[in-house]
Design brief:
- With about 450 residues, the protein is mainly α.
- It has one domain: Alpha Horseshoe (Serine Threonine Protein Phosphatase 5, Tetratricopeptide repeat), CATH 1.25.40.390.
- About 50% of the residues lie in helices and about 5% in strands.
- The chain contains 17 helices and 6 strands.
- It has helices spanning about 5-15, 35-50, 65-70, 95-120, 125-150, 180-195, 210-220, 225-240, 245-250, 270-285, 290-300, 305-310, 325-340, 345-355, 390-400, 410-415, 445-450, and strands spanning about 160-165, 180, 260-265, 325, 420-425, 430.
- A two-stranded antiparallel sheet has the order 1-2. A two-stranded antiparallel sheet has the order 3-4.
- A hairpin with a 2-residue loop joins β5 and β6.
- α5 runs parallel beside α7.
- Keywords: Cell outer membrane, Membrane, Signal.
- Pfam families: SusD-like_3 (PF14322), SusD_RagB (PF07980).
- Its main location: membrane.
- This is RagB/SusD family nutrient uptake outer membrane protein.
- It comes from Bacteroides caecimuris.
Length: about 450
């Protein structure tokens, strides 16, 4: 991306705009505000540059953040870890780090709101691209906040569940309280629709309409809007076809190359900090062997190409940790959404599409009659709270194998029942309790607005 000039200008603008310590404040008093679309583009290009250099922690989190999420989950055996010096033993040991993510996400939202609310030019090609990009990034940030700082979405209880502070205006004195989860989801949906209305096609801005639709599918999937999840996922899947087995083996462990199944990824250019994050992730992920439960899952299909790509004979992770959104995830979204709608034939069709591209010999398609028994793992119920059926178990197992160490498993545990499990380390037993799946709101914010911001259950205010 041709943005070196943009970045230098942005840094100057941010110094001028840094008049307020509260990251929820968005329009500084008595300071210079950008005026032209070119001025405002520096704000957006700063975050795009962070993504491309692998420095971003929150929009498309870098490999180091992905590794941290994997340390919270259950695919890697913490009890047999070789080093606890630089990695979290379990989610409860990273509470402070998890609070920091909240502030950074709202900082990005602040910048997007500045573009959306302050740019006079709304008709030029550059302005429309900036507005579409800002709406997309803001919506993704709110989705990331909802995943981390709200309880799993259940349509029947969303009105009674805590959501997020929703910041969409420029009142310096505003102190937004937490909306409910239904209002939060509606707010995010509206933002995605606004982003799509600009039909961004310039790939220099990364968040094209196809990327936005892919994230929209993720959002609908998380909020159990199965029909819309299918609609948007199918549209993007047609544009980004999945990889065949040989293509997968060649592409999955590429450091920076982008195969045709990758919708968006971070760390596409070399950078000192990005390279350090990448290297740290590769070292940390090898400090824990793959859990025996996952090894047993792969044992049922000896000729699955993912097994040798994922780990070696000593159960040490082989797969390179990179952050990307792949079309295979959309296929799994479609399969599961069809299953929730009791459309078994369609669910099996998409499940088998992916399986046929990963099992190289003696492939046998699943039917309702030959589905394996429910696999025994920590997840016992699906996203709606129903005990796993054979079909749902097969879909969740396929997702576990396909998205191994891509930062997905932690949110799968959260989405599907928030199971409690424990690890032993340093002579102690560490339990991932149900409340820990929802990260705490920063204590500083709770103290600043005690009557407006309610802490998540389980945490001391």
């Amino acid at each position: 991306m041709k943005n070196k000039l943009f970045i230098s200008i942005y840094c100057g603008l941010m110094i001028l705009l840094a008049s307020c310590n509260n990251y929820l404040d968005v329009k500084p008093k008595g300071k210079i505000i950008p005026e032209t679309a070119e001025d405002f583009s520096t704000i957006i290009h700063y975050w795009l540059d962070q993504i491309e250099k692998g420095r971003d922690d929150v929009i498309i989190p870098n490999p180091e953040v992905m590794t941290t999420l994997e340390m919270f989950a259950d695919d890697l055996n913490a009890t047999l870890a070789s080093n606890f010096g630089y990695t979290s033993i379990y989610v409860g040991s990273a509470i402070n780090k998890n609070q920091a993510t909240y502030k950074t996400l709202y900082s990005v939202i602040k910048d997007c709101n500045m573009v959306i609310g302050n740019m006079d030019d709304t008709e030029s090609d550059l302005a429309r691209t900036l507005l579409g990009t800002a709406w997309s990034i803001r919506s993704i940030c709110y989705y990331n906040l909802m995943q981390r700082y709200c309880e799993p979405y259940q349509p029947e209880t969303a009105k009674e569940t805590l959501g997020l502070p929703l910041v969409d205006d420029f009142d310096m004195e505003a102190k937004p309280a937490r909306a409910n989860l239904k209002e939060t989801a509606e707010f995010i949906e509206e933002g995605f629709r606004k982003a799509l209305s600009y039909n961004v096609s310039n790939e220099d801005f990364i968040f094209t309409s196809s990327v936005t639709k892919a994230y929209f599918a993720r959002f609908f999937f998380w909020t159990q809007n199965w029909s819309n999840a299918i609609t948007y996922a199918k549209e993007v899947l047609e544009k980004y076809p999945m990889l065949e087995a040989d293509e997968y083996v060649e592409a999955i462990n590429q450091k920076q190359a982008k195969a045709h199944n990758v919708i968006i990824r971070s760390f596409t250019m070399d950078d000192d900090i990005g390279t350090m994050s990448y290297a740290t992730a590769q070292a940390d992920i090898k400090s824990r062997p793959v859990d025996r439960n996952l090894v047993d899952l792969f044992a049922a299909t000896d000729n699955d190409v993912r097994r040798r790509c994922n780990y070696d004979s000593k159960r040490i992770v082989n797969k390179i940790i990179t952050t990307k959104f792949r079309s295979e995830e959309l296929c799994l979204i479609i399969a599961e959404a069809h299953a929730h709608l009791n459309q078994e034939t369609d669910a099996l069709g998409y499940l088998n599409q992916l399986r046929s591209k990963r099992i190289t010999q003696d492939y046998i398609a699943y039917t309702i009659d030959n589905l394996p028994e429910v696999f025994q793992q920590n997840i016992k119920t699906d996203a709606t709270g129903i005990p796993l059926t054979k079909l749902m178990s097969a879909i969740l197992c396929e997702r576990r194998k396909e998205l191994f160490v891509e930062g997905d498993r932690w949110f799968e545990l959260k989405r599907n029942g928030r199971p409690e499990f424990w690890v032993a380390a340093k002579g102690k037993k560490f339990i991932t309790e149900k409340y820990l799946y929802t990260f705490p709101i920063p204590k500083a914010d709770i103290r600043l607005f005690p009557d407006l911001l309610i802490q998540n259950p389980g945490y001391i205010e």
